[in-house]
Q: What sequence folds into this?
């Protein structure tokens, strides 16, 4: 059973961090570069980022339980546990806060038939915030990967 739980631990980290890097830094830019319709590219990218958020929350839940079960309360002193919790918080902020707000701004722009400057500026601001949060989360993921690779799981 211990081998299965360790394999799931490594799978959860790989899935979560791999999704962050592949979708955020490869797939989304390719969508915008190759689809002629930026609105369609944005819709597909938005669905992929939502999926990453759900995968991240699921992976974080497993990693949290795994680390607590493995190390007990000593896990509270381990950097890896706090990395998982911080990454989960960022994923939740994206999934339940930033992405719905950006979706509302997109719907408002469609209702106006053209992105008014105020709506466009607000969307650009939130897109920038979202990008920074995503960058922080993906860099924390690399740190988590390095931490878990040192045999501290």
A:
């Amino acid at each position: 059973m211990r081998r299965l739980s360790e394999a799931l631990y490594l799978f959860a980290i790989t899935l979560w961090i791999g999704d962050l890097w592949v979708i955020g830094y490869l797939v989304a830019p390719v969508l915008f570069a190759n689809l002629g319709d930026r609105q369609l590219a944005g819709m597909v990218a938005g669905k992929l980022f939502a999926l990453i958020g759900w995968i991240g929350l699921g992976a974080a839940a497993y990693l949290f339980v795994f680390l607590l079960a493995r190390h007990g309360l000593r896990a509270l002193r381990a950097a890896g546990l706090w990395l998982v919790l911080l990454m989960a918080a960022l994923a939740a902020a994206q999934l339940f806060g930033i992405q719905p707000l950006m979706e509302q701004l997109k719907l408002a722009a469609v209702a106006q038939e053209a992105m008014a400057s105020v709506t466009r500026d607000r969307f650009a601001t939130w897109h920038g915030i979202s990008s920074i949060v995503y960058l922080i989360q993906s860099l924390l993921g690399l740190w988590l990967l390095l931490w878990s690779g040192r045999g501290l799981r």
